[in-house]
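Exercise 7b. Backbone tokens:
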């Protein structure tokens, strides 16, 4: 089984190294090949997603991805910025279904900004559509406004759009995921304002009829943002579009104590996927050895489960992570009084040791 390892920028190489360390300790028949991506690739090849990197990703059975981005690239043309690499991979590989589990381990309730009774035992799955919406809709650009109150002034414009087939396929993914959990799906939209969301709600309601064993509810995105803070454990599976999913999943991350704990999987229709932590490249702490590698390690576990069909090995990693937390070992982002602060590499070593 071939894995493309794309460490990227900032803390990406540090956290990916720890996930690779854990994977190697499992002694599975895995072949791992590394390639540059993001700013690191731009420095080498003049593009954030060079053809050789894209070819490796296409030929691999799964992709383990770190993070991309650095302030020093902010002056580049948009098509050359590091973030275009992840958007390009999603598009070229047709990775349309993003799974972002938000789990608050009992040992980390003190690290959350919310009360322990609100987040203790939290287990939400956010299913985010990844190939459509305002990120990819056209037309988009910057122009002189043709009309309106500020006609002639420069304006930026983007287009939010979804087709029925796009909504249908992510709906099926969400309902199938709910069947393996608590059989509840909350579809999040803004149908009281957006035509796109009106179609989204209509299609979700129609597809739900094929899943009579799953309860469907609808919620406006602003209310969903509030309920995630007020009563997060009322959710099971949340399904939503690209833009809303991007925002809500980061909000959910903080319920768990740190975004450094959140893995993610981006899958195509055949479950080939790209696996990455939900956080960014954090260039301000790169090289300091303080980044939390657990989200990346847990992303590797998701890779074993969804793309490589190795659920027992995935469970071994997840159990090892929980053992480490029970032992009171913490990186700086999840450190609380009474626990032991350790480095990025030490956390990786601790997970390897806990694998037994």
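Sequence design result:
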């Amino acid at each position: 089984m071939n894995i493309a390892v794309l460490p990227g920028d900032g803390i990406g190489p540090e956290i990916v190294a720890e996930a690779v360390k854990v994977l190697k300790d499992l002694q599975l028949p895995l072949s791992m090949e590394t390639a540059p991506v993001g700013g690191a690739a731009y420095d080498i090849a003049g593009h954030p997603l060079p053809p050789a990197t894209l070819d490796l990703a296409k030929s691999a059975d799964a992709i383990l991805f770190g993070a991309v981005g650095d302030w020093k690239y902010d002056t580049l043309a948009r098509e050359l910025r590091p973030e275009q690499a992840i958007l390009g991979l999603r598009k070229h590989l047709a990775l349309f279904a993003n799974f972002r589990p938000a789990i608050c381990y009992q040992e980390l309730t003190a690290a959350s900004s919310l009360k322990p009774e609100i987040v203790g035992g939290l287990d939400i799955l956010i299913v985010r559509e990844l190939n459509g919406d305002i990120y990819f809709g056209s037309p988009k650009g910057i122009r002189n406004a043709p009309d309106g109150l500020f006609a002639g002034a420069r304006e930026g414009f983007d287009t939010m759009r979804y087709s029925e087939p796009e909504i249908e396929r992510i709906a099926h993914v969400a309902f199938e995921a709910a069947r393996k959990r608590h059989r509840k799906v909350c579809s999040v939209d803004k149908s009281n304002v957006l035509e796109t969301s009106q179609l989204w709600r209509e299609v979700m309601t129609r597809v739900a009829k094929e899943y009579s064993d799953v309860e469907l509810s609808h919620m406006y995105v602003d209310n969903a943002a509030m309920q995630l803070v007020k009563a997060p454990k009322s959710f099971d599976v949340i399904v939503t579009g690209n833009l809303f999913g991007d925002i809500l999943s980061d909000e959910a991350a903080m319920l768990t104590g740190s975004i450094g704990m959140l893995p993610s999987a981006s899958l195509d229709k055949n479950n080939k996927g790209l696996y990455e932590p939900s956080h960014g490249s954090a260039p301000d702490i790169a090289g300091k050895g303080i980044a939390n590698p657990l989200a990346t390690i847990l992303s590797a576990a998701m890779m074993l489960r969804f793309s490589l069909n190795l659920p027992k090995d995935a469970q071994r990693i997840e159990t090892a992570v929980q053992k480490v937390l029970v032992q009171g070992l913490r990186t700086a982002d999840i450190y609380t009084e009474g626990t032991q602060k350790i480095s990025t590499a030490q956390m990786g070593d601790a997970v390897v040791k806990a694998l037994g």
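Instructor comment: The first helix runs from residue 12 to 25. The two ends are 23 Å apart (CA to CA).
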